[in-house]
Design a protein that fits this description.
By secondary structure, the chain is mainly alpha-helical. The chain has 13 helices and two strands, in the order ααααααααβααβααα. The radius of gyration is 22 Å and the shape is globular.
């Protein structure tokens, strides 16, 4: 049957039929892919997060479906799908780790970031070396965000033990909250270097104090891969590296090229957000 998706009645019928197909594929044919799609359907179309959470969990537990492990990890971390829940980071980590073992790059990324975090000492035991393994695995599987974080870590270095006086260096290198434009860019190599220098002035550190040593050549390689995978912040940092000769020979032409790429990516993201906002405003028929 052909559906006219401009008609509300046809859209509603199509959506209901889609749900029936996913349920049949999951519960009758026992297909993990169908179960995961059912979870996505319950989450995205029906907005039934409690049922979606249960589907993701069972699909991970019963079938070892990596993407479902990652999704249930997200639900656990946020407390989504459970009334009054504040989130369970330890449970989330268990499912992220399982998803990573099953080769889901996003699960590896989140496993690594949780192990690097120092903000949840009661829930997660910080393990930088293991976290680094997860991030490297994620980057190897072409996760742009993991490659970007690894670049930032090699810009400022990562200490074995966090000293409040030195936290700013890693934060400046690993977190990019501003957006590229013709005049501004995310925290760059210069920002990270300045933060690291300020921290070192307060508390001199030796190489043995670091798990990840500062290495601008490695930082450049990770930034270049992240940029090739279309991480706009990595492209902005790459532009700064070429402009300053950090980790690579100074090249103004390449600096301008990567700056232009970062700006173009930012503009694309902005347009996508505007389109998404319009679609959400239109809404889905109940």
């Amino acid at each position: 049957m052909a559906y006219d998706l401009k008609k509300e009645s046809d859209v509603k019928e199509y959506v209901e039929k889609l749900g029936m197909e996913y349920r049949f594929g999951c519960y009758m044919e026992k297909k993990p892919e169908a179960c995961h799609l059912l979870g996505d359907y319950l989450e995205g179309i029906k907005k039934d997060f409690e049922k979606a959470s249960k589907v993701y969990k069972s699909t991970c537990d019963d079938y070892g479906y990596a993407k479902s492990c990652y999704k249930f990890g997200n639900y656990s971390f946020l407390g989504k799908g459970k009334s009054g829940s504040k989130g369970e980071p330890r449970v989330a980590y268990q499912y992220y780790e399982k998803g990573c073992q099953l080769n889901d790059p996003d699960a590896c990324l989140h496993s690594g970031l949780l192990l690097f975090s120092s903000s949840m000492p009661k829930e997660i035991d910080r393990d930088v070396l293991k976290g680094l393994e997860f991030l490297n695995k994620s980057c190897d599987m072409n996760n742009a965000t993991a490659c970007f974080y690894l670049s930032g870590m090699h810009i400022a270095g990562v200490q074995k033990k966090l000293d409040p006086a030195n936290v700013g260096a890693s934060a400046a290198a690993s977190t990019a909250s501003s957006t590229p434009s013709t005049g501004t860019a995310p925290p760059s190599t210069a920002t990270a270097a300045a933060a690291a220098a300020a921290a070192s002035a307060k508390t001199p550190l030796k190489d043995s104090d670091y798990v990840v040593l500062k290495d601008m050549k490695k930082a450049f390689l990770f930034a270049r891969k992240a940029c090739e995978l279309r991480n706009m912040y990595a492209c902005a940092n790459l532009s700064q590296m070429y402009a300053r000769g950090d980790g690579i020979e100074k090249n103004e032409k390449e600096a301008e090229r990567y700056k232009k790429m970062a700006i173009e990516m930012h503009d694309e993201v902005k347009k996508q957000q505007e389109t998404l906002g319009f679609q959400q405003g239109v809404g889905m028929p109940n």
